[in-house]
């Protein structure tokens, strides 16, 4: 009887330790040397390079940055002191949108440490880059003379080229925007259905055609934010009174992933990696919370980090193919938030039952020997 209790106690001790181990360690992303009022991270690549933007405390300007380990570098601007919507690819090529000296918003790419305007010879039109793939292809949005609203666009050396909208009418007010592009050149984003319908739908653009992939019974709208190299798309469904729900589209069907709080709540999907892991922003008890969708389950990121680190994960923006997550974290009790990387902690395999049995027998044998000697 005593030996049975010993084995059970040993097994429970190992099991409890494994279940309570955090899955991620928190690594703070450095802010710009000039100081900042607030900083936000937007993307992380497989080399753990991350990009984002900061509101500088010395001037109030909004500056983009790229961080690589403990090093951080300001990106500069196009003369207007404002940079936003920053992304990067696996090689560290950075794109985004910045204001020029006339305060117009233009897409840019960083080349040799300098921001290069991608707007072309379009003095009175605006644009913004949202993503760049491993081949250096850049997508985003642009406005065009004679066209109402913005259009999803691909950027060429001569400037942006529209890929249209879901109603296929180049002069309609059915705006569109491209949010991501994968290694094979497939593009995702959102578009209004037509000039008379204000609803937007997630789209997939491939082979010169824009396809509506955002249909879900009861949804009032949808948008796609990211696509992985396998062609899987993630984004968000507007479910009206049920809130916002994350979704995944695997090329054949769209699946409603729900929220952290069930059928009613908020879960906005921001990124997907080649493993099919999805991250984003949810709400629990009235405050923003980062989530990870993995192996069919939506997980609260605050349940996956060590509470002794003193951070609350308020939202997740990006996940790379190694499982590193770029997120916004706030110091518990202080309200100070900063960009962080959540880096996976290698799992320690649980001992097999045979190993536990051997450990138990060894311990029990030693105990009996000590009893004999004592006698």
Walk me through what this model shows.
- The chain has two helices and 28 strands.
- Residues 1-19 have low confidence and may be disordered.
- Strands 18, 19, 20, 21, 22, 23, 24 and 25 form an eight-stranded mixed β-sheet that branches. Strands 1-28-27-26 form a four-stranded antiparallel β-sheet, with no helix packed on it.
- It is globular.
- α1 packs across α2.
- The chain is 11% helix and 50% strand.
- With 375 residues, it is mostly beta strands.
- The longest helix is centred in the last third of the chain and has 22 residues, at 353-374.
What is the strand and helix layout of this fold?
Blueprint: H1 2-20, E1 24-28, E2 36-44, E3 49-56, E4 62-68, E5 71-74, E6 79-88, E7 94-100, E8 105-111, E9 114-117, E10 127-132, E11 138-142, E12 151-156, E13 159-162, E14 176-181, E15 187-194, E16 197-206, E17 209-212, E18 221-227, E19 233-238, E20 243-249, E21 254-258, E22 265-272, E23 278-284, E24 287-294, E25 297-300, E26 311-319, E27 325-331, E28 337-344, H2 353-374
Parallel strand pairs: 20-22
Antiparallel strand pairs: 1-28, 2-3, 3-4, 4-5, 6-7, 7-8, 8-9, 10-11, 11-12, 12-13, 14-15, 15-16, 16-17, 18-19, 19-20, 20-21, 22-23, 23-24, 24-25, 26-27, 27-28
